[in-house]
Design goal:
mainly alpha; 1 helix
């Protein structure tokens, strides 16, 4: 009776390990790839925003200098 119980536990553990390995494989191949693409898009958006901020800052400084010279 005890042997049969351990056999069932071992079989269940084997099945659980196979399921976990399959889930890890799915996460690696699918979800992480999507996250990587999303992060790349965010990086590009941040670079564009950074450039816009520098342009606005430059225009602000130039307009301030022109205003002071005109006074």
């Amino acid at each position: 009776m005890e042997k049969q119980h351990w056999s069932e536990v071992t079989q269940q553990n084997t099945q659980d390990i196979a399921d976990i390995k399959n889930d890890i494989k799915t996460i690696k191949n699918n979800h992480l790839a999507h996250l990587e693409l999303d992060m790349a898009k965010q990086s590009k958006a941040m670079e564009k925003l950074d450039n816009r901020i520098w342009w606005v800052l430059g225009i602000l400084v130039v307009s301030t200098v022109i205003g002071m010279i005109g006074v």
